[in-house]
Amino acid sequence: MADLLNLDSISAQNRYKLLSALVIPRPVAWVTTVNAQGVVNAAPYSFFNVFGRDPALIILGLQHKPDGSAKDTTRNIDAAGEFVVILATPALIADMVRTAASYDPGESEPNALGLKLAPSGRRSRCNRMRTHDGAVAERGTVDPSGRAVGWATRDGLVDTDTMYVDWADDYPVARLFADRYARLEEIERHSIPDPYRPETSGEDRE
């Protein structure tokens, strides 16, 4: 018989440990925001996914600090109403992980690490639509949802005529747990009929 565990009976820290180790792999949102002084903050979040197409909707799961105060990302999204999500490929994983370290409030991770920045403008940002506050025992959670209004990609990634995406085997990294990340290198394709196009199989689709 399977072991049963009441998640409400354990601490928030242990709930996080279990959830992040069992629900894998997860996409990582490398989020940049700007405060009122123009300082750019960058931090990775793996409680993240796309949640809709009309509008193009994504949601972030942001944890408060142990003392209950909001992190820079949360404060900046609240103030500016927008944020940028970067999907990091393996070449960027070391820099992405370094931005998760503790920096003083208002300190820019990109500046501290010497990371190159590019203006996002409207083309590649998300506009906050709504924020859901969840009361958790030791640490609060904030889940802002954002409408993606644009996307900036590297050259050759998207064919804008066919909307075909070619990752060229350089896929974004995924979060596992603790200090473990996954590279999507072994991609399997299966001949399973598309329920929206019964006459085609998985081998026929791109």
Topology:
Blueprint: H1 12-22, E1 26-27, E2 29-34, E3 40-45, E4 48-53, E5 56-60, E6 62-63, H2 72-80, E7 82-86, H3 93-98, H4 109-113, E8 126-134, E9 141-148, E10 158-159, E11 164-165, E12 174-175, E13 181-182
Antiparallel strand pairs: 1-12, 2-3, 2-7, 4-5, 5-9, 6-9, 7-8, 8-9, 10-11, 12-13
What can you tell me about this protein's structure?
With 206 residues, this protein is α+β, with helices and mostly antiparallel strands. The chain has one domain (10-200): Pnp Oxidase, Chain A (Roll). The strands form three sheets. Strands 2, 3, 4, 5, 6, 7, 8 and 9 form an eight-stranded antiparallel sheet that branches. Strands 1-12-13 form a three-stranded antiparallel sheet, with no helix packed on it. The chain has helices at 12-22, 72-80, 93-98, 109-113; strands at 26-27, 29-34, 40-45, 48-53, 56-60, 62-63, 82-86, 126-134, 141-148, 158-159, 164-165, 174-175, 181-182. The termini are far apart. It is built from four helices and 13 strands.
What is the number of beta strands? 13
Instruction: Give the strand content.
Output: 25-35%
Please tell me what the overall shape is. Answer: globular
On the 0-100 scale, what is the average pLDDT? Answer: 84
The CATH superfamily label reads Electron Transport, Fmn-binding Protein, Chain A
Q: Note the main sheet.
A: 8 strands, antiparallel
Distance between the termini: 41 Å
Considering DSSP H and I runs of 4 or more, what fraction of the residues is helical? 10-25%
Reported by name, the CATH topology is: Pnp Oxidase, Chain A
CATH architecture classification = Roll
Radius of gyration: 19 Å
Structural class from helices and strands? alpha+beta
Low-confidence segments, given as residue ranges, are 134-138, 201-206
Helix tally? 4
Order of helices and strands: HEEEEEEHEHHEEEEEE
CATH class designation: Mainly Beta
Structurally, how many domains make up the residues?
1
